[in-house]
Design goal:
The chain is mainly α and about 325 residues long. About 70% of the residues lie in helices and about 0% in strands.
Length: about 325
C-alpha cells in the first residue's frame, strides 16, 4: 500500500533460503513468513531481477547473465589487445577468467561489480583521447563509485572501483601530473561509493519508520570491529588471505608470471611503477578494515576483492619488463 516505503525498506521473507524467499515474494506470498528489512543497501540489481523472475525461470536469468558478462569480458580483452597488445590483455583478463568467472557470471549480486568495472574500463579504452582529461576520467570514476554502491551488496566493490583505475594507469601513465591524478581518481571513486550509499541511508530514514542512518553506522562498525560475543582479529584475515594464495589457480599462474618477469626484468623501470604495488595493497587494506565482514564472507564473496590486486601485480611485472609497450 506504500510502495515508496516498501522500496526503501526492502523487506523480505527470511527462512534461510534466499532464492525460495524471493520467489515467494515475487508471487505475492510471504505474508506468514518472518520478515527482515535490508534498508541500508540500494539493492539496485532487484530493479531488473524481480521483473525477470516474474516472467522467466531462475535458470534462464543466470544463463543470460553469464552470456552477457562473457560478451563484455571478451570485448574488454579485444580492446586491450588492440590498444596495448596481447600481453596486457592476458594480464587483465587471465585473473578474471581463471578465478571462478562462471560462478560470478551467474550471480546477480557478484556480476554487478564485474559489469561496472569492465564496462567503465571499456569506456576508457574506447576514448583514449578523453582519458587525458582528468575531469572526464573523474566523471567516469564518480559514476563507477555510485553504480557500485547502487548495485552491490558489499560483495567485491574493489573490482568495480579498481579495474577502470588500473586501465587509466596503463593508458595515461605519461600524462603530466599522473601520480596526483591517480590519487584524485581513487578518491573520487570512493567518494561516489560511500556518498551514494549514505544518500540511501538519508532518503530511507526520511521516508520510512526506520533510522537507517543509525542502522548503517552500527552495521558498519560491526563489520569492522565486530561485537562482544563475535569478534575476529586481523590474524584471521591474514589466515584467510594466506589460504587464498595457496590455491593452485592463484599461485601457479602467478609463479609462472614471476619466473618470466625475472628473466625479462628492466630494473630501471621499477621505481616509476611502484604505484601499481601500492594500488595492489588497496584491496588488502579494504579487507582488513572490514575484517569482520571479511572473516564471515571471505570464501564465497570477499576474496574476489583480491582480483584487482593480482591484476595490479601482473601489470607491474609487464610494465617493468621487456614486454612493456611504451
Amino acid at each position: 500500500h506504500r510502495p515508496l516505503q516498501s522500496v526503501m525498506r526492502c523487506d523480505f521473507p527470511f527462512t534461510g533460503d534466499p532464492i525460495a524467499d524471493l520467489q515467494v515474494q515475487v508471487q505475492g506470498g510471504g505474508g506468514d513468513l518472518p520478515v527482515r528489512d535490508y534498508a541500508r543497501y540500494w539493492h539496485g540489481y532487484l530493479v531488473w531481477l524481480r521483473p525477470l523472475l516474474a516472467c522467466v525461470s531462475w535458470k534462464a536469468v543466470r544463463g543470460t547473465l553469464l552470456a552477457l558478462l562473457s560478451f563484455v569480458l571478451l570485448l574488454f580483452i579485444v580492446l586491450w589487445t588492440k590498444q596495448k597488445g596481447m600481453v596486457y590483455a592476458i594480464g587483465f583478463g587471465l585473473p578474471v577468467i581463471l578465478w571462478y568467472f562462471p560462478q560470478a557470471g551467474i550471480s546477480p549480486q557478484l556480476s554487478s561489480v564485474y559489469f561496472v568495472g569492465l564496462i567503465a574500463s571499456i569506456a576508457l579504452l574506447c576514448a583514449p583521447r578523453k582519458i587525458n582529461d582528468v575531469r572526464w576520467s573523474g566523471g567516469v570514476m564518480l559514476l563507477v563509485g555510485c553504480a557500485s554502491s547502487y548495485l552491490d551488496l558489499l560483495t567485491a566493490p574493489m573490482i568495480g572501483l579498481l579495474f577502470p583505475l588500473l586501465t587509466y594507469c596503463i593508458l595515461a601513465k605519461h600524462n603530466k601530473g599522473f601520480y596526483r591524478n591517480v590519487v584524485i581518481l581513487l578518491f573520487i571513486g570512493f567518494v561516489g561509493y560511500f556518498g551514494f550509499w549514505f544518500m540511501k541511508w538519508v532518503i530511507a530514514t526520511l521516508v520510512t519508520d526506520i533510522n537507517v542512518i543509525q542502522s548503517g553506522v552500527h552495521n558498519g562498525m560491526v563489520r569492522s570491529y565486530g561485537c562482544d560475543d563475535d569478534f575476529y582479529t586481523w590474524t584471521t584475515v591474514f589466515e584467510r588471505v594466506g589460504d587464498l594464495l595457496k590455491e593452485p589457480f592463484i599461485w601457479i599462474p602467478m609463479l609462472t608470471a614471476a619466473l618470466v618477469w625475472v628473466c625479462t626484468i628492466q630494473p630501471k623501470k621499477i621505481l616509476s611503477n611502484l604505484y601499481l604495488i601500492v594500488l595492489a595493497i588497496v584491496p588488502v587494506v579494504w579487507l582488513f578494515v572490514l575484517r569482520q565482514h571479511t572473516a564471515y564472507h571471505f570464501y564465497h564473496l570477499a576474496w574476489r576483492n583480491m582480483i584487482p590486486s593480482l591484476v595490479a601485480v601482473l601489470m607491474f611485472m609487464i610494465e617493468t619488463s621487456h614486454w612493456s609497450k611504451e
